[in-house]
Amino acid sequence: MDIDKRLRELAARLAYVNDVFGPKGGANHRLMNSRLGEFLDRRSAMDPDEQLRRLIQLEDLFAFLEKKLAAELTPMDLVRIVRHPQRVCLKDILENVYDNYTEIGGKDEFSIDPSMLIARAYFTRRVGERVVNQSVMVIGQEKGHGEEFRNGGSVKPWGNAKALHYMRVAETENIPVHSFVFTPGAYPIEDYPGAAQQIARNLYEMAALKVPVICVVSEGGSGGAEAVALADKRLMLSHGYYSVISPEGAAAIEAGLRLGQKAPPALADKCARLLKITAADNLRFGYVDRIVPEPALGARVQDYDFFKLLRGELIMATNEVVGAVKGMKLFRALAMRRGANREAFEVENIFMRWTLNAKARERLVLRRRRKYRAMSRKARLDGRSVLRRAWMAVQGAVWGINSFFRHDLLGKHRRRMQRVMEEIGAEAHLVRERVGRPVRSFLDRVSGRERLASDEARQRLTRLSRPEEGLCRPEGEWAYLSPKSREDRTVTCPNAETHGCRDLWAPDLYGEFAGVCDCCGHHFPMEYEWYLHNVFNYSPSREFNSEIESVNPLSYEGFGLKLEQAKKNSGRKSACVTFETEMQDVKAVVAVLTATFRGGTVGAAEGEKFILAAERAMSKRFPLIAYVHGTAGIRIHEGTHGVIQMPRCVMAVRRYIDAGGLYLVLYDTNSYAGPVASFLGCSPYQFAVRSSNIGFAGPGVILETTGLETPPHYQGAYQALARGHIHGVWDRREIGRNLYQALMTMGGRNLYYR
Amino acid sequence: MLNVKGLLEDIKASPYEEIVIAAPHTGVVEFAGIRPGDKVQGRSGTWKEKPGTVLAHLTREKNRKPLCAPEKGEVVEVHVELEGRFVEAGEPLAVIRHFLTRKEVIELILKKALSLFPAPEKAKYYFVPEIDQKLKVSGKRSVKLRDGMEVFIVSRMKRETVLPYTGPGGIIYSVYFHRGDNVDAGQPLIGVCPEDQLSLIQDVVTKVQSEWEEVE
Q: Which residue is closest to A505 within chain B, CA to CA?
C-alpha cells in the first residue's frame, strides 16, 4: 500500500515537471518518465524488498533531477509553478502551519466569494510550563487545487469587502493580521462595491490599521494583491512572483494584440524576464523584507518541512513587528536579531505577546508609514540639487511650524474667542429683536410709513434675465483656447445617430462650447492645459518638483527610447504636474495626471510627486485636488516600482485626510486600473467630467479574464455614479463653479479659508 | 379580410427587401471598394454595438464619415459614377438586398394578421380570474375578446387595477408574458386574431418555420 502511494506521488511529480517545463524539460523529463515506466513494468516480478530498494533509488533520482531542473528555472517557469494546481494553497497553510483554525464566512463554494478566505487561527506555544495560544486573523486569496469556483484566486469586489471587514474585526480584537497573497489579479467587474474602489478602500484602511500586518506573497498579481498586501513585514516565497501585470498581459500589450489573440509564449517569457518579478528581484528593490525558501521546484502539499519553516518565519516576523513598537523586550530583541539566521525551531523559543497598547499602536502606524515612504528611491531621478532639496525640507518644516502656530496654537484661541463672541452676538440679536420690534412697528404705524426693501434689491430679486444686456455665456470666457479650435473643419458627435446631433464646426466646438456638443452634451476630450488655465489658474512659477523625472528603472528593453519620446513631445519630465494655485481666494495644491505623457501611467516619479504634493498640502493646510486628465494605470515598464506606488500614495492620502485635509478627485477622459484602485478611489469626494470613463480594467481585459461581454458605456461616468463609485458628474463648463462650491461645502477640519 | 396566403406568396416571390443607401447629407463620396455581388454585414454584437461593413465614406468640411451597411445582405448596385464627386443629401449611392430571415417573415405576417395589445406601463400583469381559469382549462385559443372587455389585472407597487382590452375583437392567438413577470411599457401582452383566420395563420406560421430557407 505504502509503495502504491509513493508511486502515485512520483507520477504526480512527473506530471508536475511536465506541466512546468513542457518541452524544455527535455532529457531530464524523459529520463524520469522512462525510469518510472521501467519500474512499473518490472514491478510484478520483484519481491517487496527489491521493490522498496528500487523505489528509494527512483525517488533519489527524481530528487536529483528536480534539483538539476530547479537550477535552470526562468521567471516564466515560476509563473507556471505558482499557478499549478499542486502548489500549496492557503487551506494547506492553515492546516499545516497553524495549530488550529476556524474558517469564517464560507465553506468551499458556499461563500460570498470562495476565492477570499478568512480564518481565525492560532499558534500554540509553550512558554516555560505554560501553554499559550496566540491568535491571528488570517486573510488571503484561496486558489485551491484547481477548483473552478475559486476563480484561480481572482477575488470579486465583495470578497475584498469581506477582507476589509475582518481587518477591522482584527483591529477591534487587537490581534495581528496574517495576509496571504495568492492571486493572479482582482476579478475585474464594476458591480458595487467595484473592483477598483474596493481595493482602494482596503488600502486606505490598511494604511492606518492599528494591528501588525504580516504578508506572505506567493502569487502577487498587481491590484488584486495590493488589496491585502499593505503590511508591516512582507515575506515572499522563493518561487513566487510579484508583478504589475501578468507576463502574458504584458506580452499582449507589447505585441499590440487585439482582443482574443494570444501572445507568443516566447514573448511572454521575455516579458517575465524584463519585468523582474522574482522574489530575489523584489528583495533587492526593497519591496519584500525576507524570502522564505521553498523546496527545489516550489512548495507542494506534502512538503511538511516547508510548512515548519513558514511557521517559524511567520512567528518571527510577527515578533519583529511587535517587538519594534513594544517597550519592554531586552534580551528578546537581541535574540530576535540573531534569530534571523537561525533554524526555525529556535524562533519558537522567543515568546512575545502580540497585543499592543494604544501608544504602541500609534508607533506601529508611524513605522509603517516611514517604511513605505522610504521605498522606490532609486526608481526615479530627482533632478533637484542637494541644496535645493535641503531648502525644500527646511521650507516644509517652516510651513508646518507656521501652520501649527497660526491654525493650531493661536487659531484655537481665536476660534474660541470667535465662538464666544458669536454666542454673545446671538443673545444680543434676540434681545434687540424682542425689545425693538414692537417699538419699530409702533413708530411705523404712527408715521404711516411702510418699510420696504430698496428698489434695487427688489429688482434684483424679481426681474427676469435680460439677454440684451449681454450673452448668457459671455464670449471670451475661456482664458485658454484649444489649438483644435483653430482648424477649419467640422466634427461629428458620436451620439449623432441616436440624438440627431448636427455636425459641429471645430472653432465653435473647441472654442466657445468648451468641447461640449450643443445638442446632446457629449464632452469631447480636451487637452489638460485647458483645465490648467481655465479652471485651476495655473501659473508655471507656482509649479513645484517639476525636476523629478521618470526613468527606466528596470532597464526595460526599448522603454528608454519611448520615455525620451514622451518627454520630448510633452515637454514634461513625468506624467504628474503639481502646483499651487488660488481659485476665487481659495488656495489649494493641485496634482494633475496628464494623459499625454505615456497615457498618464503612474510610475515611481509620479508617485513621489503626488506624495510630495500631499505633504505640501498638509503642512500648508491647503485642500488637495487631484485632477486626472486620464490614466491608463500603473506603468508596467517599471514593474513593482510602479505597483508599490499604490500603497505609498494611499498612505500619503490617509495621513493628509487624518490630519484634517480635504482631498478631492476629478476624473476626466479615461481613468483605469491601479491609480483608481488606490490613491484616487480612496477619496471620499470623487467627481467626474461628463463622458468620461472610470473603471478597473478595459472591456477587452474583462472579456479575456472573465468571459463576460460588457455593454457599451459600461464604465461611463453616469454608470459609475449609479454604482456609487463616484459622487457627482460635472459639466466641463461648470467645473470652476462646482469646484468652488465643493471647496465651500465639503471636507475636513483644516479648511481655514471658510 | 386579410389574405394571409396571398401575403406569404408575395413574400416568397421576393424573399428580400431592398435597402437604398442614400447620402445622409452633402459631401464628397468615396466608395470603400464594394462591388455588386459583395456580401455585407449589418450591425452586430449583443447590443448591436458593432457597426456593419463600411460601404463608403462621405467627406464634408474636412470631416470624413463612414457609411455602414444597416443590415446583412448582398450589394446589388453601386453608383460608381459618383466616386470622388460631390453629392446632395438623399442621393442614392448603393442598393443592398437583404434576405428575410425566418423570424422576420413570421414577424411580418403576424404584424399584419394579428392585433397586438401592448402593456401601457411597466408592471406585473395577470389575467382576470375568469379568463385565467378558462385559459388554464381549455387553452388560449378558447378565449374570445371584444373591445372594452376587462381582461388584465395590472399590479404595480402593491396597487392592483383592472385593464380593459381595446382593439378589434377575436381570439387570443399568443400570450407574450408569464404570470408575475415584469413587463416593460410598450411590450406586447397578447396577440389577437380574427376567429376565422386562426387555423390559416397557424398553418402559415408552421409552414414558414419548417420550409423557409434563409439565404446566407
A: B61
pLDDT at res. B3: 74
Q: Which domain holds residue B121?
A: 104-211
Average pLDDT, chain A: 90
Chain A partners within 8 Å of B46 (Cβ): 709, 711
Task: Check if the interface score ipTM surpasses 0.85.
Answer: no
- Subunit contact A709:B49, Cβ cutoff 8 A: no
Sign of CA dihedral A582, A584, A590, A595: negative
Domain boundary among B77, B99, B121: B99
A642-678 confidence digits (pLDDT tens): 999 999 999 999 999 999 999 999 999 999 999 999 9
Nearest residue to B21 via CA among B87, B92, B80: B92
Written out in words, the top-level CATH class of the domain with range A82-309 is: alpha beta
pLDDT of A329 higher than 80: no
Question: Do B167 and B190 share a structural domain?
Answer: yes
Q: Where are the domains of chain A?
A: 2-72, 82-309, 483-512, 528-745
Q: What is the mean pLDDT of residues A270-279?
A: 94
pLDDT at B7 over 60: yes
- In this structure, are B66 and B108 located in the same domain? no
Long-range contacts of B88-92 (CB under 8 A, 24+ apart): B88/B23, B88/B26, B89/B22, B89/B23, B89/B24, B89/B25, B89/B26, B90/B22, B90/B23, B91/B22, B91/B23, B92/B20, B92/B21, B92/B22
Q: How far is A527 from chain B (nearest CA, A)?
A: 21
Phi, psi angle pair for B105, to nearest 5°: -65, -45
Please tell me whether residues B35 and B133 are part of one structural domain: no
Mutation site, B49, B59, B64, interface A, largest A CB count within 10 A: B49
Residue A502: DSSP 8-state: P
Q: Given an 8 Å threshold on Cβ–Cβ distance, is B65 in contact with A491?
A: no
Q: Say yes or no: B161 and B188 in one domain.
A: yes
Out of B99, B134, B168, a domain closes at B99
Are residues B83 and B36 part of one domain? yes
Q: Count structural domains, chain B.
A: 2
CATH of span A528-745: 3.90.226.10
Amino acid A289: pLDDT: 96
Q: What is the pLDDT at residue A331? A: 67
- d(C-alpha A498, C-alpha A496), whole Å: 6
The pLDDT of residue A476 is above 70: no
Do the domain assignments include residue B161?
yes
Residue A22's pLDDT is what? Answer: 84
> pLDDT digits over A609-636, tens only?
999 999 999 999 999 999 999 999 999 9
Q: Which CATH number does the domain housing residue B59 bear? A: 2.40.50.100
Q: What angle do CA A594, A598, A603 make, to 5 degrees?
A: 85
Indicate if B69 and B122 belong to the same structural domain. no
Q: In this model, does residue A277 exceed pLDDT 80? A: yes
